């Protein structure tokens, strides 16, 4: 086993140190992330052990230290090659990012010589990188040209150039993938930070202060990730203004933006930038700052926010979701306020073409297909208002809000643990994490959700902290959780909670009692093996109770014996009663549930007619549902649920849900079937229950094969 140059250099630092070195100092000296430092230290320890030396020690509150005997050995060992420095090698992706930054931020320095100095590679490699970069730029409507004696230049719409660089750099600076790369990016954007680390800290503090003041003006709180993104946006603006570039905003857009609180905040930001960086910020750039503020994700938002048109759209989205999911939210107004806090910035992002990557999108679509499908249907009013389809990334963000509220339940379990959640991704994500944790851990009360920034000043009380990002535990223990918690995550989290709150001690006590009982009646020959098998048995038993209940499919809920065919009925009340009869006969529901469905229509109107010809009567589970079920009544003549023609229906599906979740897979499959006109026609024309089931089976199979 050998050490590469970087790890040998790190080991040299520790060997020559007289005192423990904190992780932060090692990061600064090595110009790498904390994760890389720990990874390298682990690798070095393996090397030390393989050479029969004591591994590196960590002293709490002080840092890392190499034992004296290891230091003495390395000083005398001729085979250990001391490294006084090491050279960081950029990946191709990192080189392309640095070249883009230089081209956009400092075009007058964009020459082949400067590219080679920056990336530390040959002329041929730079030329190859530039060819790839040109292809990427062309896809976004931009070009890279070269003139002898002048160098390389970028051409394209100013807003497109800035957004391209912003979207490219944001993940690097928000996720801190590589401290070295982040440092070099800041240096390219603001060369004054090259000499001293404190200059970089001063730059960041200055930008953060400007954004915090904008928060106060707008009376809201941005997520931690958005704070970093906004700071980067301002820094790019400063660099482009120093190069005398300015963007253009249409007069109609400017007129709209000037009526917002964000514009007032943007004017204050522009004044601060002019003072701090000695630049002139034109009106169009001020408007661009306002647009970015409006499009930024927030952690919380005051009640009563507008604009009113978006509030109306959100109300319709919530109504749509309840209709398609066949549920009624307990705190509908609370959901609307939380959803509105996301929809307002989402509206401005989509309106002005601002991309906001959602790394959870693919995982959420795969793990919560039904939730994503229902949210996509619910989002129709917003899509109509915008005049375009919402990207899957935005649908995923909306799904987080609906999912968080969907799992929200009134608990009857006595609170055993008080916890806080630290999450930097906004309201919807926090609610999703909260609902999943409360459903997994009995007796858990989440008392607050905080951003990383708020957590740093948190002085409240809690038994445990759940964090979606890495946090160093202080006095309160920390459990790291993903945003989307699968079954394996659940088992791990439950295990960690049990360990924290003495479940392990109780398990050991139980095993001791069992062993003592066996001792009374038998001779134990292999005590250790028996204890281990008892532990495994207890763990397996615990895991078997933690596995998530598999949601039934449509062909498991709707069966031939719950399908009926009639020519006509006297009215919609009779239609609901008739459609419910198979479920009453099977004692799936009680008579009170039928009355509750009818009463809901009287009270709320024909909301159960989700589309022309289709109605899904339902009520709350507590109104009289014994178990999950569904029935179907096909009428030849449509029945009217109101005087409007669009509220007539021939296909009546009665849903008996036991909670807000278990029926969602079946319901998503049903709505997908009913989204095709030919399927509606087949259901309306048939008189055979077997034909209905055949149609359902075909569509389920088709969906699974996609």
From TrEMBL:
Assigned keywords, A-Z: Repeat, Transferase
Domain of life of the organism encoding this protein: Bacteria
The organism of origin for this protein: Salimicrobium halophilum
Pfam family name, one: PTS_EIIA_2
Gene3D superfamilies: 3.40.50.2300, Mannitol-specific EII, Chain A, PRD domain, Winged helix-like DNA-binding domain superfamily/Winged helix DNA-binding domain
Residue ranges annotated for the PTS EIIA type-2 domain, each copy included: 556-699
Name of the protein in its database record: Transcriptional antiterminator
GO biological process, one term: phosphoenolpyruvate-dependent sugar phosphotransferase system
Domain PRD, first and last residues per copy: 198-303, 305-412
InterPro entries in UniProt: BglG_antiterminators, HTH_11, PRD, PRD_sf, PTrfase/Anion_transptr, PTS_EIIA_type-2_dom, PTS_EIIB-like_sf, PTS_EIIB_2
Listed GO MF terms: protein-N(PI)-phosphohistidine-sugar phosphotransferase activity
């Amino acid at each position: 086993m050998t050490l590469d140059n970087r790890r040998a250099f790190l080991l040299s630092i520790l060997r020559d140190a007289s005192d423990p070195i904190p992780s932060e100092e090692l990061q600064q000296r090595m110009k790498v992330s904390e994760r890389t430092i720990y990874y390298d230290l682990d690798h070095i320890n393996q090397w030390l052990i393989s050479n029969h030396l004591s591994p590196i020690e960590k002293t709490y509150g002080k840092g890392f230290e190499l034992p004296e005997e290891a230091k003495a050995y390395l000083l005398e060992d001729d085979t250990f090659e001391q490294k006084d420095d090491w050279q960081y090698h950029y990946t191709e992706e990192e080189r392309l990012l640095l070249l883009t930054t230089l081209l956009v931020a400092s075009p007058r320095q964009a020459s082949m010589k400067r590219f080679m100095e920056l990336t530390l590679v040959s002329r041929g490699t730079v030329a190859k990188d530039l060819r790839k970069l040109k292809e990427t730029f062309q896809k976004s409507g931009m070009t890279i040209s070269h003139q002898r004696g002048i160098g390389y230049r970028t051409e394209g719409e100013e807003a497109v150039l800035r957004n391209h660089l912003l979207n490219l750099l944001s993940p690097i600076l928000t996720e801190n993938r590589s401290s070295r790369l982040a440092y070099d990016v800041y240096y390219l954007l603001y060369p004054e930070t090259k000499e001293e680390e404190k200059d970089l800290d001063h730059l960041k503090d200055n930008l953060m202060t400007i954004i915090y003041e904008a928060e106060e003006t707008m009376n809201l709180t941005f997520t931690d990730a958005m704070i970093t993104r906004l700071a980067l946006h301002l820094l790019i603006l400063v660099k482009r203004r120093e190069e005398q570039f300015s963007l253009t905003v249409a007069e109609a857009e400017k007129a709209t933006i000037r009526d917002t609180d964000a514009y007032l905040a943007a004017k204050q930001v522009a004044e601060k930038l002019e003072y701090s960086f000695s630049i002139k910020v034109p009106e169009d750039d001020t408007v661009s700052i306002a647009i970015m503020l409006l499009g930024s994700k927030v952690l919380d938002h005051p009640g009563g926010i507008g604009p009113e048109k978006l509030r109306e759209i959100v109300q319709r989205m919530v109504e749509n979701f309840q209709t398609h999911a066949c549920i009624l939210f307990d705190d509908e107004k609370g959901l609307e306020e939380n959803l509105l806090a996301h929809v307002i910035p989402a509206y401005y992002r989509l309106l002005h073409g601002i991309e906001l990557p959602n790394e959870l999108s693919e995982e959420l679509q795969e793990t919560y297909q039904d939730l994503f499908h229902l949210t996509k249907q619910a989002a129709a009013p917003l899509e109509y208002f915008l005049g375009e389809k919402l990207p899957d990334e935005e649908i995923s963000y909306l799904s987080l809000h609906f999912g968080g509220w969907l799992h929200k339940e009134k608990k009857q379990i006595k609170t055993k643990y008080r916890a806080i959640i630290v999450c930097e991704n906004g309201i919807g994500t926090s609610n999703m994490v909260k609902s999943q944790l409360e459903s997994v851990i009995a007796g858990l009360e989440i008392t607050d959700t905080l951003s990383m920034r708020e957590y740093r000043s948190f002085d409240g009380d809690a038994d445990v902290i759940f964090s979606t990002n890495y946090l160093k535990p202080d006095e309160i223990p920390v459990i790291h959780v993903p945003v989307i918690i699968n079954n394996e995550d659940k088992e791990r989290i439950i295990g960690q909670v049990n360990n924290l709150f003495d479940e392990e001690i109780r398990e050991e006590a139980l095993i001791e009692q069992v062993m003592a009982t066996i001792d009374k009646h038998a001779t134990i020959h292999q005590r250790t093996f028996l204890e281990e098998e008892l532990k495994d048995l207890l763990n397996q038993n615990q895991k078997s109770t933690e596995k998530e209940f598999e949601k039934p499919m449509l062909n498991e809920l709707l069966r031939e014996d719950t399908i009926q065919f009639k020519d006509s009925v006297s009215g919609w009340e009779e239609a609901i009663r008739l459609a419910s009869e198979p479920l009453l006969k099977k004692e799936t529901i009680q008579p009170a549930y039928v009355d509750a469905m009818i009463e809901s229509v009287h009270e709320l109107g024909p909301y159960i007619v989700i589309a022309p010809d289709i109605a899904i009567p339902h009520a709350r589970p507590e109104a009289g549902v014994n178990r999950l079920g569904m029935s179907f009544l096909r009428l030849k003549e449509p029945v009217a649920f109101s005087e409007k023609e669009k509220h007539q229906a021939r296909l009546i599906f009665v849903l008996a849900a036991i909670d807000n979740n278990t029926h969602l897979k079946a319901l998503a499959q049903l709505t997908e079937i009913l989204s095709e006109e030919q399927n509606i026609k087949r259901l309306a024309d048939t008189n055979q229950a077997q034909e209905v089931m055949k149609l359902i089976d075909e569509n389920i199979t088709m969906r699974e094969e996609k």
